[in-house]
Amino acid sequence: MSYFSTVPQAPPDGILKLSVLSRADSDPSKVDLGVGAYRDDNGKPWVLPVVREAERRLNEDPNYNHEYMGVGGLPALTDGAQQLIFGSNSPAIGQGRVYTIQTISGTGANMVAAVFLKQFKRPADAAVYISKPTWGNHRSIFETAGHEVREYKYCNYKTLTLDIDGMLDDMRSAPEGQIFVLHACAHNPTGIDPTEEQWQQIADVMSERGHFPFFDCAYQGFATGDVDRDAYAIRLFVDRGFELLVAESFAKNMGLYGERTGCLHAVCQSSDVIPQVSSQLNRLSRATISTASAYGAKIAATVLQDPRLYEEWLQSMQDMSQRIKTMRDALRDKLVALGTPGSWDHVSQQIGMFSFTGLSKLQVDTLRNQYHLYMTDDGRISVAGLNSHNIDYVAQSIDAVVR
Ligand code: PLP
């Protein structure tokens, strides 16, 4: 009998399953709105010009080598990433009470945070609360790290808007001192973000109840095209005096999906605890990846540290978010013009890479099987997969299944 015969089958990952199905479909009308990656108007992956320029510089550097990096990662990246998230004039950075460690993109940052919190959370039996719905990997990461995971209300499924009352109620009724996973911007999968006023209410309740915020920031610059606006919630919480953790990813905003470039930031009340916190984060990182990956970090650091490349990068983020916004409006307008039953304003109003369309599982299945249109079972589409060549087909297909 195999040593492994008692290993149970893991449940399939919805997104990965979807990409396998989509890849196997060779129909010319196929549209893949599943994968959360930016595509240009020809449906092709886009390498940002600043990334090409940074790669050229690295390739031409005669001193470039492939040595290990230090355990915390590349300082030019971690410093630049701190400023990007907290602002270049951030008092918390100035006071030396932020520690940043380089991670394996946003997923690695979530995992390091999850393991760190499992070992040091207070109270020790605090649960981790994730939004309903959330990025599929949140539950898996926090459960794998050994936490009890609970959900807080987030989406009003009837109106496809934020259920702010339900969210605040759940935060109020949770025992004191729980860990709340918050999407900093461009909520995945709904595309529904709290307004600035609603973030203030959330901060009020979290402060009253002594909850610990863990911000997952995978889309800074993607939501509004403005990195400062997209960091509003994180900076608000820091200004309010919260201690917190932030997972930051450069996958989407720099298009470094496969390079696995990200950071985990810990904001502490004072610099006194930084030696303890940094030593534990370094230990966890050493135990899991030993040292972070270099190539993507060097690309991202080059962009973050060079004023001209940085400005050009800001423009590229605006271009990406604007194209997505244009596609949102176009899809809404086309559905309205077709007289498709229902209201479609939410498609325009939602933000970031995704739209929660409100299509049912049955409609999603029909779109997949009869129209070669791929989206996740919950009706989420990656708006970045829409373009001027497929938008009419997508609108007509949705119209056909909704009638
Ligand atoms: N967090 C959220 C909410 C996401 O949507 C994603 C990616 O889809 C990630 C984290 C992690 O992405 P990555 O590990 O590619 O940086």
From TrEMBL:
Enzyme type, top EC level: transferase
GO molecular function: L-aspartate:2-oxoglutarate aminotransferase activity; pyridoxal phosphate binding
GO biological process terms, semicolon-separated: aspartate biosynthetic process
Cofactor requirement: pyridoxal 5'-phosphate
UniProt cross-references to CDD domains, sorted A to Z: AAT_like
Annotated keywords: Aminotransferase, Pyridoxal phosphate, Transferase
Transferase is among the record's keywords: yes
Coiled-coil intervals: none
Subunit-level organization: Homodimer.
Protein name: aspartate transaminase
Organism annotation: Coemansia aciculifera
